[in-house]
Amino acid sequence: MKTIDIDQTYLRMDSQGFYKLDIPEKLNMARLMVDFWAEHGRAQDVAIYDEDRKITYQELKNLTDRFANGFHKLGISKGQRYVIRTPNQPEYQISFLGGQKVGAVPIPTNTMLRESELEHIINNSEAVAVITTSRYIQAIENIRAKYKTLKHVVVIGETQGDQISFDDLLKEDGASLPFVETSKDDPAYYLYTSGTTGAPKGVVHAHRFIIGAGDPIGKFTMGLERGDICGGPTALTWMYALGHNFLFAFRWGVSTVIYSDERFNSERAYEFIEKYKITIFAGTPTIYRMMLAVKDAEKRYDTSSLKYCLSSGEPLLAETWREWMRRFGVKIIDSMGQTEAHEFCTTQTNLKVKIGSMGKPLPGIEVAIINDKGERLPPGEMGHLAIRRDHPALFKEYFKMPEQMKEVSFPNNWYDTKDLAYTDEDGYFWYGSRSDDIMTCHGYRISPADVETALQEHEAVLESGVAGIIDPEMGEKVKAWVVLHEDYEPTPDLAKNLQDFVKATIAPYKYPREIEFIEELPKTSSGKILRRELRRWEKEKLEKK
Fold first, then answer.
1. In terms of CB atoms within 10 Å, which end of the chain has fewer, N or C?
2. CA 185, 191, 195, 199 torsion: positive or negative?
3. pLDDT digits over 312-327, tens only?
4. Nearest Cα to 56, choosing from 188, 245, 254, 195?
5. Yes or no: is domain 437-544 CATH 3.30.300.30?
6. Residue pair 86/156 in contact by the 8 Å Cβ criterion
7. How many CA atoms lie within 13 A of 323 on its CB side?
8. CATH number attached to the domain at 28-204
9. CB of 483 within 8 A of CB of 518?
10. What does the alpha-carbon distance between residue 274 and residue 290 come to, in Å, rounded to a whole number?
């Protein structure tokens, strides 16, 4: 068999030295990620590590072919949607890829979603099947009568009634799988937004995503090479982890590790790195802060396999970056991404690090700061963070939501991320906030992310959330909800200390006029702070007075 050089991507440099993404018309994500490697010299390379089990690319091809044929025999065909509701486990990956092989469209969902959210997703997407586990089946069955299009419920584990056994699907003959051709623009998978603003929207991604996102991210953010092992302690249903710990690893023919614990544990994370010799670890700033709280971890655990650590989802503090680098000697590569596009700005392996910056746009992706007219703004000026609409990793549409599509479509062929940011003189991008989170206090426009970042630099603060609340005198004032490290007690003196600390760290007018200590921040299933929930809490307090 011919061995394929892992650096052969669809990224091409033009005559002026700019990267372009050259994507073939006929494309199927699953076949590119699995079959290609099984047929081109990596059949015996490990694709998935799961506890003590190893699944090679050849075995993964066989398993996904069997699943695909089982789906085909159920009558599930090209373009039909199906929901996956499982924790991190190989069956999730097999279901995702197997369905794609017959042109069906997987919709991964977080296991923490409530019944009402599941009902919305299944009915909105017109899903014909659900794949779940015996542990999580009850939420599906409780409201099964409300599903308009659902025909098949596949269960991993013990089944009841008319439920279909996942193991039975895998008994089908993969060799007789019919070939279903898909194009680069055909729907490949949906993700429903975690709903920081309004009801979750069905984000439709095409097969071109795997090259449009996977090639630049795998090459410039992850630095992937044959033999790399990718993993991290977050749910694979979150776009960030879905890419780094699953799709992009398979795009580059390297290994992934299943992190099966559904609750994060810092000691377990170090054991995870040590046991599997992880080379690319994907976490969040909060995860890194919690891991750094483990005393002498750099002496107790072998983390020497690490090449790069990745971060996204919230601001990465300078102190976190420096302390991680000091103790482990590994860079944390920060990034900015969305469900609609995955990462588009990152620190990148070959860039000088500016701590706190999103880095620069990935090669092949055009990103800019623009005004309401779609015109580029100069360095230093805050504006809309936008991506050119022809970026191949950008989503196709919000399913059945044309009005929401109009809201993010800007003049001059730009997609508005609904985030505010600015660039510096060196072309680095710096995050401001969500456009609907900006607070106005005494006439000043204040980004909650600025205040949260300042608070989290204080040694007592584990996490913080900031939002604007109604104030009879000021109109709106800045309030912070703070989660403390275990060794600190919430007191009025500490609240005053935090306020003074913020005044000394950033512009004094940005300091939180009120601080409330809480045990846990409200977050989306992907770990993002729900500032609208903080505002709702405050509104309910006012209504009770």
1. C
2. positive
3. 877 787 888 999 999 9
4. 254
5. yes
6. yes
7. 18
8. 3.40.50.12780
9. yes
10. 17
